[in-house]
Amino acid sequence: MIRISYLLLLLPTSVMATSGNKEPQQTAVEFNHWYLSQVELNIEPNYTSREMKKYVTTATREKLQRITDQEHQSGDALYDADFFIKSQYVDDDWSEKVTVLSADRDPVCLTVKIAFGAKQTHVVADCMVFENGLWKIESVTNIK
Q1: 120/137 Cα distance (integer angstroms)
Q2: Which of 55, 77, 115, 134 is within CB 3.0–4.6 Å of 120 for a Cys-Cys bond?
Q3: In sequence order, which residues have a C-beta less than 8 Å from that of residue 1 and are 6 or more positions away?
Q4: Quick check: pTM over 0.90?
Q5: Per residue in 72-104, pLDDT tens?
Q6: β-pairing verdict for 98-105 and 122-131
Q7: Separation CA 37–CA 41 (nearest Å)
Q8: Residue 72: how many CA atoms within 13 Å on its side-chain side?
Q9: C-alpha span between 129 and 134 (Å, rounded)
Q10: Number of Cβ within a 10 Å radius of residue 118
Q11: Diameter of the chain by CA atoms?
């Protein structure tokens, strides 16, 4: 009887963890679709925009804004690749085809591996954290 009660206590937690995993994945896909469409239109990131606030943590947006301000003042690019896509170029089909390859939780964040394009030749990992009731991107790592 004790074993059954214990299993019943674990069941809601497991269901919540499973259903919660979909939201960060969906957020990562939505952000990357939107962001790549902006890149294709040569629109420079606006870290104070409604979209950025929805998808990117406050701390990350503030750091990126400081870097952008420094780049504008010095006239020199401080980074070789785009922060969110970890690339200097975008293939034609990247914004159309954003695919979640996996999602793994660790003590720091929920890492969502995202592939761009039909051939999935470029892969990044979005470190997603829960901020103000929403899953948001904290950092991005180049995988492939």
Answers
A1: 21
A2: 115
A3: none
A4: no
A5: 777 676 667 889 999 888 888 998 899 999 999
A6: unpaired
A7: 6
A8: 7
A9: 8
A10: 13
A11: 70
Structure tokens at 73: 């003042």
DSSP letters of 24-43?
A: HHHHHHHHHHHHHHHHHTTP
Residue tagged 């159309």 (tokens): 96
Sign of CA dihedral 24, 65, 40, 82: negative
Tell me how far apart the alpha carbons of residues 39 and 62 are, in angstroms, rounded to a whole number.
Answer: 20
Residue whose structure tokens are 């040569």: 42
Token pair, residue 41, equals 């239109």
Q: Give the phi and the psi of residue 107 in degrees, each rounded to 5.
A: -65, -20
- Find where tokens 């103000």 sit: 132
Residue 65 amino acid letter: Q
